[in-house]
């Protein structure tokens, strides 16, 4: 078995095939990564953010609960601060409502401007019932969003806001 010499033509074929394959792989890898990455990424929809509010201290009167969490957008990480109105309902279940008005995105307040037992939006005099249902004949057309709640070590944890299913 003797070694066969490689001709110039074969050498150029091998070299160009190798370089072309390397370049094609370099172009295809980002596309493959883009297609496969969502499948491999962990599910973040169930993440809860801790608050400093003790569940035992909640009553039937809504209290404002501020909480913050770290958010990553691509390579930029930032601290996000959010708010919720939290209370216990008649069944002693924790209810957490988003303070963002569904009309124009203003912040609602509990019993604001003298409106007894209602959430009030000062932007266009929008009102919501205690359970987040929008009051008829006021600007908001949808109820306030709700936060899923959990309890860990006696402290309240809140998930991402969802459409209101209470009303």
Rg value = 28 Å
Helix and strand content put the structural class at alpha+beta
How many angstroms does the end-to-end distance come to? Answer: 85 Å
What percentage of the residues does DSSP assign to strands (E)? 25-35%
Based on Cα principal axes, name the global outline. Answer: elongated
Q: How many distinct helices? A: 1
Strand order of the largest sheet: 2-3-4-8
- Which spans of ≥5 residues are poorly predicted at pLDDT below 50? none
Average pLDDT metric: 88
Report the biggest beta sheet as strand number plus sense, adding barrel if it closes.
Answer: 4 strands, antiparallel
The SSE string, one letter per element, is HEEEEEEEEEE
Give the fraction of residues assigned to helices. 10-25%
How many β strands by DSSP? 10
Account of the 3D structure:
The radius of gyration is 28 Å and the shape is elongated. 20% of the residues lie in helices and 31% in strands. The protein contains one helix and ten strands. The model has no long low-confidence stretch (mean pLDDT 88). Strand 2 and strand 3 (76-88) form a beta hairpin. The N and C termini lie far apart (85 Å). The chain has a four-stranded antiparallel sheet with strand order 2-3-4-8, with no helix packed on it. A three-stranded antiparallel sheet has the order 1-10-9, with no helix packed on it. Strands 5-6-7 form a three-stranded antiparallel sheet, with no helix packed on it. The protein is of the alpha+beta class.
């Amino acid at each position: 078995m003797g070694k066969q010499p490689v001709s110039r033509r074969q050498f150029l074929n091998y070299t160009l095939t190798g370089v072309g394959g390397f370049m094609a792989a370099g172009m295809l890898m980002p596309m493959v990564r883009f297609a496969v990455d969502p499948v491999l990424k962990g599910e973040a929809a169930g993440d809860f953010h801790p608050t400093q509010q003790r569940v035992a201290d909640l009553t039937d009167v809504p209290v404002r609960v501020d909480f913050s969490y770290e958010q990553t957008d691509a390579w930029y990480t930032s601290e996000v601060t959010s708010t919720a109105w939290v209370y216990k309902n008649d069944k002693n279940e924790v209810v957490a409502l988003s303070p963002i008005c569904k009309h124009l995105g203003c912040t609602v307040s509990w019993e604001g401007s003298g409106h007894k037992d209602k959430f009030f939006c000062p932007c266009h005099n929008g009102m919501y019932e205690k359970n987040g249902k929008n009051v008829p004949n006021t600007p908001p057309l949808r109820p306030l969003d709700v936060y899923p709640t959990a309890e860990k070590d006696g402290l309240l944890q809140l998930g991402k806001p969802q459409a209101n299913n209470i009303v």
